Amino acid sequence: MSKDTIIAQDRAQPLGRYPHTKRVGSWVFISGTSSRRPDNTYAGADLQPDGQWILDIKTQTKAVLENIQHYLGLNGGNLEDLVDVIVFLKDMSHFEAYNEIYNSFFPNTGPCRTTVAVADLPRPQILIEIKGTAYIANE
């Protein structure tokens, strides 16, 4: 069984030695994904002149899911191929707003999902990170 890794050149590059996705047979594993753009800024995170961040969980959630959708496309799949996701929220008070955007990406039943609150994420401007597993049958 071959193992294929993808580091998408048109997306923000991993901050460590890991790929955006690793495929083993029909299984595709998606590394934790944030709203980081190729220029290393974050969708839904605007730094104010006074040094304070204005953060938007809805914008970040949308950007994260769009990044995951892109990675799945590079593997010949789409969001319908997701089997399981783990969502890391920096603040559980954002649950309803994140859930609203999440649900808009899955009009029918989506993948199995676990949402947990975490004490912190790698950058102060990150409110959400999602990792996932997809099953994309080989043709």
UniProtKB/TrEMBL annotation:
<dbReference type="Pfam" id="PF01042">
    <property type="entry name" value="Ribonuc_L-PSP"/>
</dbReference>
<dbReference type="GO" id="GO:0019239">
    <property type="term" value="F:deaminase activity"/>
</dbReference>
<dbReference type="InterPro" id="IPR006175">
    <property type="entry name" value="YjgF/YER057c/UK114"/>
</dbReference>
<dbReference type="GO" id="GO:0005829">
    <property type="term" value="C:cytosol"/>
</dbReference>
<dbReference type="InterPro" id="IPR035959">
    <property type="entry name" value="RutC-like_sf"/>
</dbReference>
<protein>
    <submittedName>
        <fullName>RidA family protein</fullName>
    </submittedName>
</protein>
